[in-house]
């Protein structure tokens, strides 16, 4: 924590305001956790010209509009939304404290336990769990749980290029449907580029693979695959891009003077995963840079979750929404007060009317205000 920054404490802090982060924050808030969403802005979803494959969302909805509405929903439920960039993070290490500090903490815990018995309160869920501090520009966010939804960044090829979302695309599963029976390019020199070119033959008969003057890195086996499919490999570099009045790509001009018409295409140059915070916290990573998680989004570090494009799997908005929801439900399962554990009933006694509901007062008031069935 920096000395100049103010400190804000939450049960859960979600880092990243894409679909996965919004969903995680929504579930955490509605399930009774004091939650903050910290979003630096931008990201893959924000660049979407149109939202595809999300049931109930019209395709004329832009990614920016989807995210903006999501943040408004979060604030209506009581989540605190910050526009900030997290530059570093840390996890309190109990093992580094000296014996006098440990003795003082033990005395404080004994006093708290005695007070809890008198008031029939639940013991704090943060016992023996180091708090996590996330350092922003002017604020340090301290939380018991952290959800990382920082995604990845597509590696862009060198210009000249079509406009992103108007002829330059990155997600086959999102946008292949847009190019059924249309002329399409695939840009890249990797195994992935070659196979995406072949996959696009399921949607159109007119597919070019553009290497842009760079030697391909695909294998001999993949070269054989390409030679046995109606895919034209164009090695010349692109020299200019022609767009229509609506901004959509119309054609590309190449070094040899040829002009090729395309409705759009896909760039396959890999991704850079935004895993810096996960690395600082000690989360285990896969070889490709994704964060290793279980079925609920739990990382290898206690109380740290990762969801969305930062984790392995298909990079789709509906999948990201589902992963955020699962993480939020898992955190609720860990943090909820009731039903009281049998061992705590022996210690604290039965749950009384004054003990419930378990939702924090500020969220309780927000929920009552939000009710629409009167």
Automatic annotation (TrEMBL):
**Is Flavoprotein found in the keyword set?**
yes
Molecular function via GO: oxidoreductase activity
Where is the segment annotated Disordered? 90-132
User: Which UniProt key words apply to this protein?
Assistant: Flavoprotein, Oxidoreductase
* UniProt xrefs under InterPro entries: FAD/NAD-bd_sf, FAD/NAD-binding_dom, Ferredoxin-NADP_redctase_2
Q: Which residues form the FAD/NAD(P)-binding domain?
A: 10-324
What is this protein identified as?
Answer: FAD-dependent pyridine nucleotide-disulfide oxidoreductase
